[in-house]
Amino acid sequence: MCGDATREGTEECDDGNGNNGDGCETDCTFTCASGTGAYAVGVRPSGECYATFSTARNWAGAFQTCVDLGGHLVVISSLAERQFVLTLRPPNATRMWMGLHDFAYEANTVGSIFMPITREALTYQAWTTGEPNQYGGNEDCAEFYSGGAWNDQGCSTSSPFACEFPATPFSVCGDGNQAGSEECDDGNLANGDGCNAICDAEPTCGNSRVNPLEQCDDGNTLNGDGCDNNCTLTGCGNGVVTQGEQCDDGNAVNGDGCDSNCTLTACGNGIPAGNERCDDGNTVDGDGCDNNCTATGCGNGVLTSGEECDDGNLVDGDGCDGNCTLTACGNQVVTPGEECDDGNDATGDGCSDCALELEIVQELEPNETPPMPVGMDLRVRGYVEPVGDVDNYIFQLEAGHLYLFETWLGTVGECASQQDSADTVLTLFTADLAYLAEDDDGGLNTCSALSWQPAASGDYVLQVTESNQDQMVLGYLLTLRCLDCVPE
Hints:
Elements: E1 40-43, E2 49-57, H1 59-68, E3 72-73, H2 79-86, E4 96-101, E5 115-116, E6 141-144, E7 150-153, E8 159-165, E9 351-352, E10 355-356, E11 359-362, E12 372-373, E13 378-384, E14 391-397, E15 403-408, E16 424-430, E17 435-439, E18 449-452, E19 458-466, E20 473-482
Parallel strand pairs: 11-13, 12-14
Antiparallel strand pairs: 1-2, 2-8, 3-8, 4-5, 4-6, 6-7, 9-10, 13-20, 14-19, 15-18, 15-20, 16-17, 16-19
């Protein structure tokens, strides 16, 4: 029946009212775009009427023109419809506006989502390859492009356009008339004013309808019920803190204050982040990852089983040596004042009391000239006596090796005697007594330590004197070590 808003039989249209001049007459015949200056008008067998206009307008102007004529910018739903409209395109019109825009969803992480102004489902699309691409960041309106495929374009561009005049009632979001499935229509296509660009009442989350940017919408704003108040599924990383979460910053980045397991960034939360070498989710020491989030081991600053100490470094001689034992003779670490350390107090094994078990020979006077020959495997007990005495010794050194001459007062590792002011000086010469180097107090206390790396192999003379040449040194021990020689 004509006027019942249902097109049937021979009716060309049926808009459900008794008005003439609105595109569908009271006898259910079209007056599609009559007298509007349209370039071309066409009616499909299914009853829809289309009109194309060669007058260039921006998208908003084209939108309003179609609405004023009783229709809307064309929305294509099939290949056949697209082909039909393109037969009406004005000549030389490489571009022509259509009724799609992305105003509602352009500012999102998904990308441009174009929606029809009629709120109908977009069941057919014919985008040019690589489109829509939001080139320049402001291509929010759709157009027929060269060849008839679709393209996104800046809405301020002026182009021809195509209007559609459906044969049955329809709604157009943005025309100011709430109709069809529209929740609202405030006469514009702006967001944030209570009615968004596709005529959904704002806020849209919580309206029980899942839009393209929502993962879910259960019609409420409760959190933790499977769909949270930002319309994302309840879970770590959705930006909503729910039961079992310490935090939720909406990402899976570690070390930014809230880690990917939704715990605060910290040692012991199970997520290695920042300077952490490990994180096993607890603060138990000795289980492979200690309470400072470093791997269990000597030098990590955490005292664990088998360690006497752990000062967080592997430096020897600082009170806690590199094997995590207290600095002392017998801990198998050679530290200043020790020649060796074999970890035991046995004698006869080459190292006793952290000194090499070498033969001690007595200085033979006079030894000023010629010097007293001394081998590498000997130690010399000498005396600067009388005052002003000079003791010279000759050693054979090999080029390239690093040697250390030291004096001690008492035994190796000691520099104390009844003479509180006893002070030795070591001076090194070539075999023909050309000066090379000297040391006064480089050893322990007032004892001497002189290192030398000869450029040539041969004999070298070492001289021992008292520092001020005004007193005697009653009993010093002279030692020589090769610091980089490989034992035979």
